[in-house]
Amino acid sequence: MKPIKDPNGKVIAELLQDEDVTSSLSGKKLAVIGYASQGRGQSLCYRDSGVDVIVGLRKGGASWARALEDGWAPGTTLMEIPDAVKAADIVLLLIADTAQPEVYAKSIAPSLSAGKMLVFSHGFNIHFKGIAAPKDVDVAMIAPKGPGFVVRQEYEKGFGVPALVAVHQDASGSAWDLILAMAKAIGATKPGVLKTTFKDEVESDLFGEQVDLCGGVVEMVKHAYETLIEAGYNPALAYWEVHHELYGLIAPLAYQYGNYGMLSRVSLTARKGAVVSGPRVMTADVKERMKECLVDIQSGKFAKDWMAEYKEHGYAKLNAELDMLKAHQLEVVGKQVRRIMWPKKDVE
Ligand SMILES: NC(=O)c1ccc[n+]([C@@H]2O[C@H](COP(=O)([O-])OP(=O)(O)OC[C@H]3O[C@@H](n4cnc5c(N)ncnc54)[C@H](OP(=O)(O)O)[C@@H]3O)[C@@H](O)[C@H]2O)c1
Ligand SMILES: [Mg+2]
Question: 294 lies in which domain range?
């Protein structure tokens, strides 16, 4: 176990790595339900780690075709969801969060007999009560802190993506052993895993993607781009400045060296500008808005509204909102610049 300390030396977290996990999945059959980002990424890692793994999908979907391409064999390692659940000891539910409650009720619950373990990669449906598992099954979580394709890429490099692990229900008494063995099998214990709760995983995950990773940063870049365009600057110049450099050059520096380390690697003038204008833009008021988002997450309002919208409109409303973003000049310009810069790369 590796301690993380606060600036006064007090231990405030502990990360588990390979040597801390001695349990294994031997004798257990694992069914991965779903084959998109996480389902594909994780199931291929389990397979290469020697886990007895099968994939459960609906026939005819895009995932079924993809699984066939990856060598999963119908009838033995690829089957329809109820058959996979029947055959498995551990069921890892990796279909869309919105669809999980209906698929669980129809295709999973009837075959989820006592002693099995139900596993998630996001606490959404357990925490917000879209799914209530029976008391005689274990309920646990392995939530990689990165997209499924990166889970796979890192594993192929002999490493892994860090992950959160949690146990919601330990009916068998071995839920922690099994979930840690799963974390090890996908390489997550190489960088490290943190034991947490479903509540903390889901609330922090939604918060991060909303205010920072996916929501906040996109709006910040849009504001910066529009400011330059409205002041008469060239669009390609504006794109390179506020988007290209952020994601391609500055974010990787901060990823590897931290924010301070990133600032130590830019010019002195950039450093001065950062401390002068960063706090001027990202004011205490922005933090207040972040707190409001967190309140809506913690109260369940965000989840309730999203599930209600899904039930009424499916993904139509979300897609219309995303189409508006797609039509923004930053996206239109960026796409062209990327294609000119990288004609041989898989770019959009
Ligand atoms: N995306 C990430 O990187 C990430 C990171 C951490 C945690 N997670 C969590 O991992 C889980 C899976 O997320 P994801 O992004 O990999 O998948 P996703 O894109 O949200 O969902 C797509 C998968 O769900 C299946 N699916 C959707 N509706 C279905 C239905 N009615 N019946 C049967 N299958 C259905 C699809 O199968 P078809 O092809 O047959 O439609 C496909 O396999 C979620 O709990 C998510 O929160 C994701
Ligand atoms: Mg998330």
Answer: 208-341
Q: Is the CB of 143 under 6 A from ligand 1?
A: yes
Tokens of 302: 């965000």
**Is 122 considered catalytic here?**
yes
pTM of full prediction above 0.90:
yes
Q: Give the residue-averaged pLDDT of 181-209.
A: 98
Residue 314 in contact with ligand 1 by CB distance below 6 A: no
The reply to whether 214 and 191 lie within a common domain is no
Position in ligand 1 atom list of the atom nearest CA 144:
6
Which ligand 1 atom minimizes the distance to the CA of 66?
39
| Residue 340's pLDDT band (cuts 50, 70, 90) | very high
Q: Which residue, by CA, sits nearest to atom 18 of ligand 1?
A: 96
Q: Is 147 a pocket residue for ligand 1 (Cβ < 6 Å)?
A: yes
pLDDT digits (tens, 9 = 90+) for 31-61: 999 999 999 999 999 999 999 999 999 999 9
Pair (222, 175) in one structural domain: no
Looking at the DSSP bridge assignments, the partners of residue 14 are 3
Of the residues 40, 43, 79, 94, which should be mutated to test ligand 1's pocket, given the most ligand atoms within 8 Å of the CB? Answer: 94
- For residue range 279-321, what is the model confidence (pLDDT) as tens digits? 999 999 999 999 999 999 999 999 999 999 999 999 999 999 9
Q: What pLDDT, on the 0 to 100 scale, is given for residue 23? A: 98
Distance 107 CA to ligand 2 centre (A): 24
| Ligand 1 atom at minimum distance from 60 CA | 40
Which of 196, 228, 245 is the last residue before a domain boundary?
196
Residues 45 and 151 grouped into a single domain: yes
Give the mean pLDDT of 244-256. Answer: 98
